[in-house]
Design brief:
This protein folds into two domains: 68 residues, Alpha-Beta Plaits (2-Layer Sandwich); 164 residues, Pseudouridine synthase (2-Layer Sandwich), CATH 3.30.2350. Helix content is 18%, strand content 31%. It contains five helices and 13 strands. Strands 1, 3, 5, 6, 9, 10, 11, 12 and 13 form a nine-stranded mixed beta sheet that branches. It has a two-stranded antiparallel ribbon with strand order 2-4. A hairpin with a 2-residue loop joins strand 12 and strand 13. The protein is globular.
């Protein structure tokens, strides 16, 4: 399935529509027992794999754990990434200095983590965020000429995580100085996240975020299963910034 941004994978409250897996159960019927094979953060959109049976779930999870399933993401990040291709190899662990309980960081005693990326294009954009957070961006390729006025630099990246740590892509990109647009935890001011969960996000804070949800999308899953090559692709037509 192509999970929309803003929807959690697992239930956090009683509403049967509150999570992806509860909606799948409604769709498949009361006797169904679906299993999530991969999970995405609430604000991350894109390909989410669900198994309908216990046997399929076990087989697919074994592929996931052995890293036999290739994952590809796309992201829009702040600034112009200098290198056309790179590998971020930095261990990750809990950020003990943060006020955000779920926040991790790069730390030497953390678990190994590697993220490979490729620059798809470098852009300039003028941003027109709405007060409700549903902002829009007008993007212009660098090759189309020099930016004018208040246009800001951004880079559109293709990304393949080589490991599967929590928040790995978001942390690694922020670590090299190019946080994902709209990232409330790793974008440089974690109070944006606290303001969101405490329901006190101001119009000015929404303006700084530019987009309602962070611009990270799981575009592709590719794997071999039961003697077949499986390729699952989720389009990104729904992004406000494209």
């Amino acid at each position: 399935m192509n999970k929309p941004a803003g929807l959690v994978c697992h239930p956090t409250k009683g509403d049967v529509y509150s999570s992806l897996i509860s909606r799948v159960r409604l769709y498949l019927g009361p006797d169904s027992h679906p299993h999530l094979v991969n999970r995405l953060d609430r604000e991350t959109s894109g390909v989410t794999l669900v198994a309908k049976t216990d046997v399929a779930a076990r087989e697919l999870r074994q592929l996931m754990e052995s890293r036999a399933i290739r994952k590809e993401y796309v992201a829009l990040v702040h600034g112009h990434v200098r290198e056309d291709h790179g590998m971020i190899d930095s261990p990750l662990g809990k950020d003990e200095r943060s006020r955000v309980a779920v926040k991790d960081c790069v730390r030497p005693d953390g678990k190994p983590a590697q993220t490979e990326y490729w620059v798809e294009c470098r852009l300039h954009a003028t941003c027109d965020p709405a007060e409700d957070g549903s902002g829009s961006m007008k993007l212009v390729s660098v090759s189309d000429g020099q930016p004018i006025g208040s246009a800001l630099p951004f880079t559109f990246l293709r990304i393949e995580p080589r490991t599967g740590r929590k928040h790995q892509i978001r942390i690694h990109l922020a670590h090299i100085g190019h946080p994902i647009v709209g990232d409330k935890i790793y974008g440089g001011d974690e109070d944006l996240y606290l303001a969101l969960v405490e329901n006190r996000l101001t119009p000015d804070q929404r303006s700084r975020l530019i987009l309602e949800h962070h611009a990270l999308h799981a575009r592709l899953l590719r794997f071999s299963w039961r003697d077949k090559e499986v390729v699952l692709v989720a389009p990104i037509d729904g992004w406000n910034c494209f």
